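From: lab user (bench 3)
To: helpdesk
Subject: output format question, protein + S-adenosyl-L-homocysteine

Hello, I'm new to running complex predictions and I'm not sure whether the block I got back is the full result or only part of it. Here's what I submitted:
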Amino acid sequence: MGFAATVLTLYPEMFPGSLGVSLAGKALEAGTWSLEARNIRDFATDKHRMVDDTPAGGGPGMVMKPDVLASAIDAASPEGDLRPRLLMSPRGKPLTQERVRELAAGPGAVILCGRFEGVDERVITRRGLQEVSIGDYVLSGGELGALVLLDAVVRLLPGVMGHAESGSSESFEQGLLEYPQYTRPREFEGEEIPAVLLSGDHQAIARWKQAQSERITAERRPDLLAKGAKKP
Ligand code: SAH
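Helpdesk reply: Thanks, we reran it on our side. This is the complete output you should expect:
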Protein backbone atom coordinates (compact mmCIF):
# COMPACT_ATOMS: atom_id res chain seq x y z
CA MET A 1 0.00 0.00 0.00
CA GLY A 2 1.12 3.52 -0.65
CA PHE A 3 4.00 4.70 -2.74
CA ALA A 4 6.85 2.15 -2.60
CA ALA A 5 10.35 3.45 -3.23
CA THR A 6 13.34 1.16 -3.64
CA VAL A 7 16.73 2.83 -3.97
CA LEU A 8 19.75 0.94 -5.25
CA THR A 9 22.93 2.59 -4.01
CA LEU A 10 26.46 2.01 -2.81
CA TYR A 11 25.63 4.24 0.17
CA PRO A 12 22.38 3.00 1.75
CA GLU A 13 23.31 4.92 4.91
CA MET A 14 22.39 8.11 3.00
CA PHE A 15 18.71 7.04 3.32
CA PRO A 16 16.18 8.06 4.54
CA GLY A 17 18.42 11.06 5.35
CA SER A 18 16.39 14.23 4.95
CA LEU A 19 13.31 12.14 4.16
CA GLY A 20 13.26 10.87 7.76
CA VAL A 21 12.23 14.26 9.16
CA SER A 22 9.31 16.66 8.88
CA LEU A 23 6.37 15.82 6.58
CA ALA A 24 8.13 13.07 4.64
CA GLY A 25 9.40 11.46 7.84
CA LYS A 26 5.96 11.48 9.45
CA ALA A 27 4.41 10.03 6.30
CA LEU A 28 7.10 7.34 6.25
CA GLU A 29 6.30 6.41 9.84
CA ALA A 30 2.58 6.47 9.09
CA GLY A 31 3.08 4.07 6.16
CA THR A 32 1.86 6.53 3.51
CA TRP A 33 4.98 5.57 1.63
CA SER A 34 7.80 3.09 2.11
CA LEU A 35 11.50 3.31 1.44
CA GLU A 36 13.96 0.48 1.03
CA ALA A 37 17.63 1.28 0.35
CA ARG A 38 19.54 -1.70 -0.99
CA ASN A 39 23.30 -1.90 -1.23
CA ILE A 40 24.41 -2.64 -4.79
CA ARG A 41 27.61 -4.14 -3.39
CA ASP A 42 25.60 -7.04 -1.93
CA PHE A 43 25.12 -8.23 -5.52
CA ALA A 44 28.81 -8.33 -6.42
CA THR A 45 29.95 -11.88 -7.01
CA ASP A 46 33.75 -11.87 -6.94
CA LYS A 47 35.77 -12.09 -3.75
CA HIS A 48 36.71 -8.41 -3.81
CA ARG A 49 33.02 -7.47 -4.21
CA MET A 50 33.85 -5.30 -7.20
CA VAL A 51 31.08 -3.05 -8.47
CA ASP A 52 33.07 -1.03 -11.01
CA ASP A 53 35.75 -1.54 -13.62
CA THR A 54 37.84 0.49 -16.04
CA PRO A 55 36.07 2.03 -19.06
CA ALA A 56 36.27 0.15 -22.35
CA GLY A 57 38.18 2.23 -24.88
CA GLY A 58 39.95 4.15 -22.14
CA GLY A 59 39.06 7.40 -20.44
CA PRO A 60 38.97 8.66 -16.90
CA GLY A 61 37.40 7.01 -13.87
CA MET A 62 35.48 3.79 -13.47
CA VAL A 63 32.20 2.42 -14.80
CA MET A 64 29.62 0.49 -12.77
CA LYS A 65 29.42 -3.12 -13.92
CA PRO A 66 26.27 -4.21 -15.79
CA ASP A 67 26.11 -7.73 -14.33
CA VAL A 68 26.14 -6.49 -10.73
CA LEU A 69 23.60 -3.74 -11.46
CA ALA A 70 21.31 -6.15 -13.34
CA SER A 71 21.29 -8.56 -10.38
CA ALA A 72 20.46 -5.70 -8.02
CA ILE A 73 17.64 -4.48 -10.28
CA ASP A 74 16.22 -7.98 -10.82
CA ALA A 75 16.16 -8.64 -7.08
CA ALA A 76 14.52 -5.29 -6.28
CA SER A 77 12.11 -5.28 -9.20
CA PRO A 78 11.11 -8.76 -10.36
CA GLU A 79 8.94 -9.30 -13.42
CA GLY A 80 5.45 -7.96 -12.85
CA ASP A 81 6.65 -5.05 -10.72
CA LEU A 82 4.77 -2.11 -12.25
CA ARG A 83 7.03 0.56 -10.80
CA PRO A 84 9.12 2.59 -13.26
CA ARG A 85 12.86 2.00 -13.09
CA LEU A 86 14.73 5.28 -12.91
CA LEU A 87 18.42 5.99 -13.25
CA MET A 88 19.63 9.28 -11.81
CA SER A 89 21.81 10.75 -14.55
CA PRO A 90 22.91 14.18 -15.79
CA ARG A 91 22.08 12.91 -19.29
CA GLY A 92 18.48 12.26 -18.29
CA LYS A 93 15.24 14.04 -18.97
CA PRO A 94 15.14 17.02 -16.60
CA LEU A 95 12.81 16.40 -13.65
CA THR A 96 9.68 18.57 -13.76
CA GLN A 97 6.69 19.05 -11.48
CA GLU A 98 4.61 17.28 -14.14
CA ARG A 99 6.82 14.19 -13.95
CA VAL A 100 6.77 14.38 -10.15
CA ARG A 101 2.94 14.40 -10.26
CA GLU A 102 2.88 11.39 -12.58
CA LEU A 103 5.22 9.47 -10.29
CA ALA A 104 3.18 10.38 -7.21
CA ALA A 105 0.06 8.99 -8.91
CA GLY A 106 1.80 5.65 -9.58
CA PRO A 107 2.73 2.65 -7.43
CA GLY A 108 6.27 3.82 -6.61
CA ALA A 109 9.71 3.81 -8.20
CA VAL A 110 12.91 1.81 -8.32
CA ILE A 111 15.76 4.31 -8.37
CA LEU A 112 19.31 3.44 -9.33
CA CYS A 113 21.98 5.82 -8.07
CA GLY A 114 25.13 6.06 -10.16
CA ARG A 115 28.61 6.71 -8.85
CA PHE A 116 32.02 7.10 -10.50
CA GLU A 117 31.81 7.97 -14.23
CA GLY A 118 28.43 6.31 -14.62
CA VAL A 119 26.95 2.94 -15.54
CA ASP A 120 27.45 0.49 -18.40
CA GLU A 121 25.09 1.44 -21.24
CA ARG A 122 23.83 -2.12 -21.70
CA VAL A 123 22.14 -2.26 -18.33
CA ILE A 124 20.30 0.99 -19.13
CA THR A 125 18.79 -0.42 -22.31
CA ARG A 126 18.36 -4.04 -21.24
CA ARG A 127 16.59 -3.17 -17.97
CA GLY A 128 14.59 -0.29 -19.45
CA LEU A 129 16.01 2.38 -17.15
CA GLN A 130 14.55 5.87 -17.61
CA GLU A 131 17.31 8.42 -17.08
CA VAL A 132 16.28 11.38 -14.90
CA SER A 133 18.35 14.51 -14.29
CA ILE A 134 17.77 16.97 -11.46
CA GLY A 135 19.54 19.79 -13.30
CA ASP A 136 22.38 20.86 -15.54
CA TYR A 137 25.23 20.29 -13.13
CA VAL A 138 27.18 17.21 -12.12
CA LEU A 139 26.82 15.57 -8.71
CA SER A 140 29.27 13.00 -7.40
CA GLY A 141 26.49 10.43 -7.10
CA GLY A 142 22.81 9.83 -7.74
CA GLU A 143 21.81 9.64 -4.07
CA LEU A 144 21.12 13.34 -3.61
CA GLY A 145 19.16 13.25 -6.85
CA ALA A 146 17.05 10.37 -5.56
CA LEU A 147 16.40 12.29 -2.30
CA VAL A 148 15.34 15.36 -4.29
CA LEU A 149 13.02 13.34 -6.51
CA LEU A 150 11.44 11.46 -3.61
CA ASP A 151 11.03 14.63 -1.54
CA ALA A 152 9.11 16.24 -4.39
CA VAL A 153 6.95 13.12 -4.89
CA VAL A 154 6.18 12.36 -1.25
CA ARG A 155 4.80 15.81 -0.45
CA LEU A 156 2.14 15.24 -3.13
CA LEU A 157 0.93 11.92 -1.71
CA PRO A 158 -2.59 12.06 -0.30
CA GLY A 159 -2.58 13.13 3.33
CA VAL A 160 1.04 14.26 3.50
CA MET A 161 0.47 17.99 3.25
CA GLY A 162 -2.05 19.51 5.66
CA HIS A 163 -3.93 21.46 3.01
CA ALA A 164 -4.64 19.57 -0.21
CA GLU A 165 -4.84 23.02 -1.80
CA SER A 166 -1.41 24.05 -0.70
CA GLY A 167 -0.15 21.96 -3.62
CA SER A 168 -2.12 23.59 -6.39
CA SER A 169 -1.24 27.30 -6.14
CA GLU A 170 2.45 26.61 -5.95
CA SER A 171 5.22 27.41 -8.37
CA PHE A 172 4.99 25.32 -11.57
CA GLU A 173 1.58 23.80 -10.77
CA GLN A 174 -0.17 26.33 -13.04
CA GLY A 175 2.90 26.79 -15.21
CA LEU A 176 3.65 30.00 -13.30
CA LEU A 177 5.88 30.90 -10.37
CA GLU A 178 4.23 31.68 -7.08
CA TYR A 179 3.09 35.17 -6.03
CA PRO A 180 4.80 36.86 -3.02
CA GLN A 181 3.72 35.66 0.44
CA TYR A 182 3.25 37.72 3.60
CA THR A 183 2.35 37.07 7.21
CA ARG A 184 2.18 39.03 10.44
CA PRO A 185 3.37 41.53 11.58
CA ARG A 186 1.39 43.85 9.37
CA GLU A 187 4.32 46.27 9.29
CA PHE A 188 7.89 45.02 9.11
CA GLU A 189 10.78 47.54 9.18
CA GLY A 190 8.43 50.17 7.83
CA GLU A 191 7.05 48.03 5.00
CA GLU A 192 3.35 47.17 5.00
CA ILE A 193 1.68 44.01 3.73
CA PRO A 194 0.02 44.98 0.39
CA ALA A 195 -3.36 46.46 1.27
CA VAL A 196 -5.32 44.25 -1.13
CA LEU A 197 -4.36 41.15 0.87
CA LEU A 198 -5.98 42.67 3.96
CA SER A 199 -9.06 43.93 2.10
CA GLY A 200 -11.17 40.82 2.50
CA ASP A 201 -12.14 41.13 -1.19
CA HIS A 202 -11.52 37.58 -2.40
CA GLN A 203 -11.87 38.39 -6.08
CA ALA A 204 -9.46 41.30 -5.87
CA ILE A 205 -7.03 39.08 -3.95
CA ALA A 206 -7.25 36.33 -6.58
CA ARG A 207 -6.64 38.89 -9.37
CA TRP A 208 -3.65 40.34 -7.48
CA LYS A 209 -2.12 36.88 -6.96
CA GLN A 210 -2.55 36.00 -10.63
CA ALA A 211 -1.04 39.30 -11.80
CA GLN A 212 1.91 38.91 -9.41
CA SER A 213 2.52 35.35 -10.58
CA GLU A 214 2.52 36.51 -14.18
CA ARG A 215 4.85 39.43 -13.41
CA ILE A 216 7.37 37.30 -11.51
CA THR A 217 7.29 34.55 -14.14
CA ALA A 218 7.83 37.08 -16.95
CA GLU A 219 10.76 38.63 -15.08
CA ARG A 220 12.48 35.46 -13.92
CA ARG A 221 11.37 32.62 -16.16
CA PRO A 222 10.06 33.86 -19.50
CA ASP A 223 10.74 30.34 -20.80
CA LEU A 224 7.81 29.09 -18.68
CA LEU A 225 5.40 31.60 -20.24
CA ALA A 226 6.61 30.59 -23.69
CA LYS A 227 5.66 26.99 -22.84
CA GLY A 228 2.08 28.15 -22.39
CA ALA A 229 1.14 28.79 -18.79
CA LYS A 230 -2.51 28.02 -18.03
CA LYS A 231 -4.76 30.97 -17.34
CA PRO A 232 -7.23 30.36 -14.52
N1 SAH B 1 30.34 10.94 -16.29
C1 SAH B 1 28.98 11.35 -16.10
C2 SAH B 1 28.78 11.98 -14.71
C3 SAH B 1 28.86 10.98 -13.60
S1 SAH B 1 28.45 11.66 -12.06
C4 SAH B 1 28.62 12.35 -17.19
O1 SAH B 1 29.48 13.10 -17.61
O2 SAH B 1 27.46 12.40 -17.59
C5 SAH B 1 28.12 10.23 -11.09
C6 SAH B 1 26.67 9.90 -10.86
O3 SAH B 1 26.03 10.95 -10.21
C7 SAH B 1 25.85 9.64 -12.11
O4 SAH B 1 25.95 8.33 -12.55
C8 SAH B 1 24.44 9.96 -11.63
O5 SAH B 1 23.83 8.85 -11.01
C9 SAH B 1 24.67 11.03 -10.58
N2 SAH B 1 24.40 12.39 -11.09
C10 SAH B 1 25.32 13.33 -11.36
N3 SAH B 1 24.75 14.47 -11.79
C11 SAH B 1 23.42 14.26 -11.79
C12 SAH B 1 22.30 15.06 -12.14
N4 SAH B 1 22.43 16.32 -12.58
N5 SAH B 1 21.07 14.52 -12.02
C13 SAH B 1 20.91 13.24 -11.57
N6 SAH B 1 21.95 12.44 -11.23
C14 SAH B 1 23.18 12.93 -11.32
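A quick orientation on your result: Helices lie at 22-30, 66-76, 97-104, 121-126, 143-154, 202-220, 222-226. Let us know if anything else is unclear.
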